[in-house]
């Protein structure tokens, strides 16, 4: 399984608007995506009010590529959120199960 960690920093003043997108669009979309085993959404904390994240566990690399395309190493961003986001990062790991 593949663990994908996606992090965004939203533009100043866009926290509330992005928060609505995150809760109403992004989380339901990821939870209903074929190939997703688990989704752990992370909302901002008081000391980092512009930072959001997702930890996603994908069943296979092929499932991940089916969702984001062959170039899965670049952060996939929904056009609806593009103007709200200042920066984004992505990292992938092989999931270790105890």
Task: Tell me what the structure shows.
The chain has 98 residues and is of the alpha+beta class. The protein has a single domain, classed as Alpha-Beta Plaits, CATH 3.30.70.100. Helices cover 26% and strands 35% of the residues. It contains two helices and four strands, in the order βαββαβ. Strands 2-3-1-4 form a four-stranded antiparallel sheet. A hairpin with an 8-residue loop joins strand 2 and strand 3. The longest helix has 17 residues, at 15-31. The radius of gyration is 13 Å and the shape is globular. The relative contact order is 0.33.
Summarize the model shown.
With 98 residues, this protein is α+β, with helices and mostly antiparallel strands. The protein has helices at residues 15-31, 61-68, and strands at 2-10, 36-42, 51-58, 85-94.
Core attributes:
98 residues, single chain, Alpha-Beta Plaits, 4 strands, globular, alpha+beta
Write the layout of secondary structure elements.
Blueprint: E1 2-10, H1 15-31, E2 36-42, E3 51-58, H2 61-68, E4 85-94
Antiparallel strand pairs: 1-3, 1-4, 2-3
Query: Biggest sheet, in brief?
Result: 4 strands, antiparallel
Q: How far is the N terminus from the C terminus?
A: 13 Å
Q: What series of H and E elements makes up the topology?
A: EHEEHE
Into which percent range does the helicity of residues fall? 25-40%
The portion of residues forming beta strands comes to: 25-35%
The averaged pLDDT comes out at 93
Number of domains: 1
Provide the CATH top-level class: Alpha Beta
Number of helices: 2
Remind me, CATH topology? Alpha-Beta Plaits
How does CATH name the architecture?
2-Layer Sandwich
């Amino acid at each position: 399984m593949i663990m994908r960690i996606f992090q965004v920093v939203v533009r100043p003043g866009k926290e509330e608007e992005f928060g609505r997108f995150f809760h109403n669009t992004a989380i339901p979309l990821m939870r209903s995506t074929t190939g997703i085993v688990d989704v752990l959404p992370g909302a901002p904390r008081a000391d980092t009010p512009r930072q959001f994240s997702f930890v996603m566990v994908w069943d296979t690399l092929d499932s991940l590529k089916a969702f984001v395309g062959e170039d899965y190493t670049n952060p996939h961003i929904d056009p609806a959120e593009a103007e709200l986001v200042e920066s984004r990062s992505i990292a992938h790991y092989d999931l270790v199960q105890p």
